[in-house]
Amino acid sequence: MIRNSIKQAGLELPPFKKGEVWLVGAGPGDPGLLTLHALNAINQADYILYDALVDERCLELASQGTIFEFAGKRPGQPSPKQHEIIARLIELARENKKVLRLKGGDPFVFGRGGEEAIALTAHSIPFRIIPGITAGIAAPAYVGIPVTSRQINQSITFITGHDTSGCVPDFDWTALARGAGVLVFYMAMKHIGEICQKLIEAGRGADESIAFISHATTPSQTVTFTTLGKAEQIVKTQKIASPSIIIIGKVVDLVAQITPLPLSSLCEEKCKV
Ligand code: SAH
After folding, report:
1. Cα(21)–Cα(112) distance, rounded to whole angstroms?
2. Is the pLDDT of residue 271 over 50?
3. What is the mean pLDDT of residues 30-58?
4. pLDDT tens for residues 77-93?
């Protein structure tokens, strides 16, 4: 159906050639957020190396005979190292396979897609990059939080909650706190207490709104609203789950005025689309 509409519209989606690697963003969960390029890639791939954050429903869109390899991190279990994943991509491409590297969200937003692209370039492996919808934008949207609003903020900052050593990055907290009205944190649940404390010390209000959006765009999506000052306590008592996007700023308060209908995959009853 979708393929027919694409053809009728005269859109040309590229053929997946043997020996190529495509680095593709799958979006944060809801398969409805896959791009047409991503769907085209999933349809044609021989091998799909996927990350932990890729929703299983996206994998179900693959053609029969596609081989799946898990290439992500699972808590408490041994996970492949980045250099091993890169070596596997190169190996499969040299075996003349159509190799799809499928990542949650966007491959270049805290996704290590850059490292893979550098290695593929260095090894002269032909590859494409297909961006995806990043969780930091989709998660707020799914709960009715606009990440920008003309009267409130003119910039957003996307931030990771930890650096390569697993600690909170050594930010200039005053610059971070003053720089943008809206802060969107990825991978920040573990260090949320320290992060909120540093932001308050750097000038953000303890009563400023913060939202935690867990498992965003999936049927298990939850959202929790609190303030910077209470966040650490709330995360503990409410047992807020990971993965979670954390958004701080006045745009969070707009949720009281915005009540969207849920998108199809979040409906309790199956909608016909
Ligand atoms: N490349 C991804 C981000 C990978 S970093 C992207 O562009 O979205 C992993 C972090 O992303 C998680 O710790 C969490 O903060 C966030 N994340 C990814 N998927 C999510 C989801 N469905 N719901 C909430 N947070 C998500």
Report:
1. 15
2. no
3. 97
4. 778 899 999 999 999 99
Query: Per residue in 107-124, is it b (16+ CB within 10 Å) or e — as a string?
Result: bbbbbebeebbebbeeee
Is residue 265 within 8 A of residue 259, CB to CB? The reply is: no
Diameter of the chain measured on Cα atoms: 57
Would you call 81 a catalytic residue per the annotation? no
Query: What share of the chain in percent tops pLDDT 70?
Result: 95
Cα separation, 95 vs 118, whole angstroms = 20
Cβ(131) – ligand 1 distance below 6 Å: no
Is 170 in the active site? no
Is the four-CA dihedral 13, 19, 23, 26 of positive or negative sign? positive
What interhelical angle do 231-238 and 192-201 show, nearest 10? 160
Is there an atom of ligand 1 within 6 Å of 245 CB?
Answer: yes
Please indicate whether residue 28, judged by its CB atom, sits closer than 6 Å to ligand 1.
yes
Asked whether 36 and 6 are in contact (CB, 8 A), the reply is: yes
What's the pLDDT tens digit per position in 155-167? 999 999 999 999 9
Mean pLDDT of the chain: 93
51 annotated active-site: yes
